[in-house]
Amino acid sequence: MAKIAFIGLGNMGGGMCANLVKAHHDVAAFDLNPAAVAAAAERGARPAASIADAVSGVDVVITMLPAGKHVLGVYFGQDGVAAHAQQGILLIDCSTIAVDDARAAHEQAQSEGFMMVDAPVSGGVAAAEAGTLTFMAGGPGINYTLAEPVLKAMGKNVFHAGGPGNGQAAKIANNMLLGISMIGTCEAFNLAEKLGLDAETFFKISSVSSGQCWSMTSYCPAPGPVPTSPANRDYKPGFAVAMMLKDLHLAAGAARAAGADIRLGKLAESIYQNLSERGFDGLDFSGVMKDLKGEL
Ligand code: NAD
Predict the structure, then answer these.
(1) What is the mean pLDDT of each run of 10 residues along the chain (296 residues)?
(2) Among 6, 11, 99, which residue has the most ligand 1 atoms within 8 Å of its CB, making it the best to mutate?
(3) How many domains, the chain?
């Protein structure tokens, strides 16, 4: 059992924090939003009034925040974690942030005497609640060994992806592939339909043929074949266009820095950017299907 501070109790963090409590960890919870802190307290965490209060006496700090600037601010800003936590403790950042920001955080954490792991997640709010997230962690092996049992209380699959920032690298490469494969799946279903196949028939064939992929078999963007997919509830997320666009921006930035050719990744980014600019940030990312059909 560890003494943990959890910072960032939003859509994802709320459920993750509750699962740590369920696993009998001693958890102090902090968020800028007092309602989120109150909700965490109702689920068994100790409500903290500030970062300083949350990190007092803990062995581990977990962050689940919107972007890199929030993580760097919470860690190293005035009255942040580094200013108040005991040196030598483990910082686990589960947010999705830029690889460069994660590597900068690792470097500064180490120079200020902290251990760090970047451990972004795959899986949405339902997986955060159910404790079935996939974690991909980056950092020195010794840090990962310490983080693993804590991450296992919130997830089903936990991977060590390598050194600092490699968790974020795995996450954005995976999500870039997801964005591309979703658009491809939408185009295939739309083409099949225009050529006279109904969605069920095309699904039966393609889901056991060489076009098979997760976007089709687990999250089919055409209504019908996969009852749990957002296509059956008018594309309510799920995983919203805004979230996919965030991850594609991160992938494009990282690819630029690394000199990697991601021409389909950039095309996917422009397709989601276009949906966002037309006001569809809140649509599920499989809603590209609706756009192809001229229904947006
Ligand atoms: P969210 O906006 O619901 O939650 C973020 C929380 O952080 C909010 O409660 C906010 O008040 C809090 N916060 C912001 N700045 C803070 C600060 N300085 N101090 C304390 N608290 C602060 O976001 P979310 O959907 O929970 O996502 C969190 C992270 O997880 C993001 O990086 C996102 O990309 C990633 N992610 C989300 C999903 C998803 O389906 N929602 C899936 C995978 C990964």
Answers:
(1) 96 97 98 98 98 98 97 97 98 98 98 98 93 98 98 98 98 98 98 98 98 97 97 95 98 98 98 98 98 97
(2) 11
(3) 2
- In order, the DSSP letters of 200-235 are HHHHHHHTTSTT--HHHHTT-SSSSSSTTSGGGGTT
Name every protein residue with a CB atom under 6 angstroms from any ligand 1 atom. 7-13, 30-33, 36, 64-66, 70, 73-74, 95-96, 121, 124-125, 239, 243, 246
CATH code for position 38: 3.40.50.720
What residues are annotated to the active site? 171
Retrieve residue 255's tokens: 């690819």
52, 84 contact by CB (below 8 A)? yes
Q: Are residues 114 and 17 in the same domain?
A: yes
| Structural domain containing residue 104 | 3-163
